[in-house]
From TrEMBL:
<dbReference type="InterPro" id="IPR002397">
    <property type="entry name" value="Cyt_P450_B"/>
</dbReference>
<comment type="similarity">
    <text>Belongs to the cytochrome P450 family.</text>
</comment>
<dbReference type="Pfam" id="PF00067">
    <property type="entry name" value="p450"/>
</dbReference>
<keyword id="KW-0408">Iron</keyword>
<keyword id="KW-0479">Metal-binding</keyword>
<dbReference type="InterPro" id="IPR001128">
    <property type="entry name" value="Cyt_P450"/>
</dbReference>
<protein>
    <submittedName>
        <fullName>Cytochrome P450</fullName>
    </submittedName>
</protein>
<dbReference type="GO" id="GO:0016705">
    <property type="term" value="F:oxidoreductase activity, acting on paired donors, with incorporation or reduction of molecular oxygen"/>
</dbReference>
<keyword id="KW-0503">Monooxygenase</keyword>
<keyword id="KW-0560">Oxidoreductase</keyword>
<dbReference type="GO" id="GO:0020037">
    <property type="term" value="F:heme binding"/>
</dbReference>
<dbReference type="GO" id="GO:0004497">
    <property type="term" value="F:monooxygenase activity"/>
</dbReference>
<dbReference type="InterPro" id="IPR036396">
    <property type="entry name" value="Cyt_P450_sf"/>
</dbReference>
<dbReference type="GO" id="GO:0005506">
    <property type="term" value="F:iron ion binding"/>
</dbReference>
<keyword id="KW-0349">Heme</keyword>
<dbReference type="InterPro" id="IPR017972">
    <property type="entry name" value="Cyt_P450_CS"/>
</dbReference>
Length: 413
């Protein structure tokens, strides 16, 4: 197998291939591509063939929830029939040795997934997130006050959106915030659409080595953090603890950071909505849900593999076939939302799938909601005259990343 074939096969497994016109945002930076919007208007489940790959693409809301809740659908892309068809046993062993799969519960099915989920659910309760709110408020206000003291202009990503969730997840897990450059740099490499498979392997190994050292430290001297609790109170192996901690660290800062930055960009480009939130802080919970729906930063979609034949929305998905739920399209489904392409911070809360659905629904969603609610509330209060420091067209978009957002957001006030 040539290097190019090796790269293509591995990338097809990691991210099912879809045409660029369905994934690349080509108009407004907050909207799905025109091609995806047009496709959504022609139906709710679509068979897509691209570069020798065939997948079902779901763009309807009800159909998406059915896929994500169906027990016939598997999240285990690593050991699926698709994996065996795409890559050789030798490449599979190189990419996914047992120690690297350990603890990666988002790619597991029941009962393995159930075991890990049960251990972690108690750590991410609504009550615990509310108890964290004063500390999150302190972190948010410290970062915003530092921006004020420094003076305009500022890069909202560097100065606010990235530090806030990074600080929160570091404290929650017991990671030294001084190590942030290490995990942020390697996370960015892992999420880049341009990273080669060899670079992916290297960064995965290095990130696991970093986290394994932390697990060892917690075994020697546990604290009051979440990771110490897992070390002390469960029978998880070191490999499992390392995998879980890596997932929580990556998901805990990347997604929320991009929602804070892209959400601010969207509000600045919709000044009437910015003003509504500024003038009525009680709208913040609705605003958070609306921004999650409207922006849908998981642009590449969520994939599942059929373990057996299953009917979704009148379409039969055969055993072994791959389904991709297009989160941006599903969250703009006009059967669920009136005027779905409008950003309305006072829109009544709906059932978006920004956090997924079913047993794999995002474990940290309540934490993300609290961080965004506090973040946007304090941002519009402390910076009522916030505006872009560059033309909107010059804001660098993360079209090269699997999690969408902005690389930087120059602002002034």
């Amino acid at each position: 197998m040539t290097t190019a074939e090796r790269q293509r096969s591995a990338q097809q497994l990691i991210r099912p291939q879809l045409p660029a016109e369905l994934t690349q945002r080509d108009g407004c930076p907050f909207d799905p591509s025109k091609g995806l919007t047009e496709l959504s208007g022609r139906g709710r489940i679509h068979k897509i063939e691209h570069n020798g790959d065939t997948v079902w693409l779901v763009t309807g809301h009800d159909e998406a929830r059915a896929v994500l809740a169906a027990p016939q659908m598997s999240s285990d892309r690593i050991n699926s029939p698709r994996a065996r068809a795409l890559i050789s046993p030798e490449l599979h062993a190189e990419l996914f040795p047992p120690e690297r799969q350990a603890g990666s519960f988002i790619f597991m099915d029941a009962p393995e997934h159930t075991r890990f989920r049960r251990l972690l659910t108690g750590q991410f309760t609504v009550r615990r997130m509310r108890d964290l709110t004063p500390r999150i408020h302190e972190i948010v206000t410290d970062r915003l006050d530092a921006m004020i003291e420094k003076g305009p202009p500022a890069d909202l990503v560097h100065d606010f959106a990235l530090p806030v969730p990074s600080l929160v997840i570091c404290e929650l897990l017991g990671v030294d915030y001084g190590d942030r450059d290490e995990f942020q740099r390697r996370t960015a490499k892992l999420l880049s659409l341009n990273t080669t498979i060899d670079e992916q392997i290297k960064n995965t190994v290095e990130l696991r080595r970093f986290m394994r050292g932390l697990v060892d430290a917690k075994r020697r001297s546990p604290g009051d953090d979440l990771l110490s609790g897992l070390v002390r109170d469960t029978d998880l192996t070191d490999d499992e603890l390392t995998g879980i901690a890596n997932l929580l660290l990556i998901a805990g800062h990347e997604t929320t950071a991009n929602m804070l930055a892209l959400g601010t960009f969207a509000l600045l480009e919709h000044p009437d909505q910015f003003a509504k939130l500024r003038d009525d802080p009680d709208l913040v919970e609705n605003a958070v849900e609306e921004l999650l729906r409207y922006l849908s930063i998981i642009s590449m979609g969520v994939s599942r593999h059929a373990k057996e034949d299953v009917e979704i929305g009148g379409t039969t998905i055969r055993a072994g076939e791959t389904v991709v739920v297009s989160v941006p399209a599903v969250n703009r489904d006009d059967s669920q939302y009136e005027d779905p392409h409008a950003l309305l911070v006072d829109r009544p809360r709906g059932h978006h799938v920004a956090f997924g659905h079913g047993i794999h629904q995002c474990l940290g969603q309540q934490l993300a909601r609290v961080e965004m609610a506090v973040g946007f509330t304090e941002l519009v209060k402390k910076f009522p005259a916030l505006k872009l420091a560059v033309p909107a067209g010059e804001v660098p978009l993360r079209t090269d990343m699997s999690i969408y957002g902005v690389h930087s957001l120059p602002v002034t006030w």
